[in-house]
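User: Working on a comparison across species. This one is histidine kinase from Maioricimonas rarisocia. Can you predict its structure so I can line it up against the others?
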Amino acid sequence: MSSGDDRSTDGWLRRLWRTLRFRLAVWNALVVVLTAGVTLLGLRQGVQWALLHEMDQILIEDVHEIALALEETRPDDFGALIDDLERKALGHKHHGWFVELRTAKGDVVWSSIDAPVDPLSAVPVRELTPRSTQNFRLVQRTVPVGPRQVSVIRVGARLELMQADMARVDQMVFIAAGGVLLLAPLCGYWLASRAARAVGEIIQTASRLRPTHLDERLPVRGTGDELDQLAETVNGLLDRIAAYLQQRRDFVANSAHELRTPLAAIRSSVEVALSGGRSPEEYEDLLVDIIDQSGTLETLVNQLLLLSETEVDQLRKQGEPVAFDDVVTKAVEMFRGVAESRHIDITLSRCDDVNLVGNRTHLRQVVNNLVDNAVKYTLEGGHVDVELVHLDCKQAARLTVRDTGIGISVDDLQHVFERFFRADRSRSREHGITGTGLGLCICQAVAVAHGGTITCESQLDEGTCVTVTLPLKSAGTKDQPGHTASMPGRLTGTTVS
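Assistant: Here's the predicted structure for histidine kinase from Maioricimonas rarisocia:
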């Protein structure tokens, strides 16, 4: 039974020791006890030193006074000096004060009534240096040979009074130490409770958080201590997680909406075809519509897959040497036919030799998206210019695509990199322009994943200029500050003018 109780007690103590409150209480109590102990010990030693110092000063003054009197005393007046010393010894009897007059050989010429019985000649005492021996404190001075061959003066006092004072000090120290030992655990527990209370509030708040309920935040007391810093850091993380989850919900909703349109069109065409009674030409038109809608659906799905790759950081793991100038040249040539069919002048005004490390497919997607947008949003007779510049000073490449198209309003410009955003859809429909609203978002994600930036400047009815800057070195070897796509779809590492 006792062994079971012992195991239960050990288990309880181990569980108690695991709690932060108990450990803090123990450490706080130890700190208080050690601090108080050192303080009390230092106080006791200080009092003892002060008492000894005061006694030494009195003895030194007395020995100087006697030496001066001895020098001024004539041999016939030696008896009067002895009487004065005897009276002084009697007056200070309660202090145990005494005096001895010795010859140079150590023979006692005269000693006061309270002088120690034991001979003190064997006690080595330096000149004017207080020395403790047995229960006495002594000071010695050598003077020129005076009456009766006196050349050594010793003045001393018993230590009983000082020892009695120190006994009272020790008693007070012991009482104070006992009080500290009693109060230290309480003080330690109080301090630990104050510190653990904030931790408990953080734990309670964190336990209420759910993936679908991230509205609560950890309490910040405003003290600026480490717990406040922890709470602010966790709150910042919760803000980013909440924003990311909201973005994911919006992304899923927008994706479903965008996928529903081509699927509904395909379903409608199939239902019409199944209803029968159509000519071969009409069936052919329906199949063409289905192919067009399937192409739109395929494009949208591919774009969504590309965005998902940027989210899981796949682009950083697929770096390869890329002749970026060749990618740009081929993209311009690919869209030249479309531009000429709409009487749009497309030029490659500058194309420096640029070799960088990245994902060729995704970099080509960026160039194609930008040139496609420029041609798509430029009216007949307009102009599209593409420029690729090698920036030696920054070890980077800058791709600029300018057009003289319909432009983007100031209100819409700040949203152009958001998923599924389409600027002024009425104007786009007016000019027969369609799209998924993912092109610039993909460009941004790819640029950021490669450690680069993307900017967009535009004037309504005057045109748009999109600039992509990419580092020449690999973006997959090391994250660059300010270039990490920590929240896909946000303007992290990009600027929009």
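For your comparison, note: The first strand starts at residue 98 and ends at 102.

User: Helpful, thanks.
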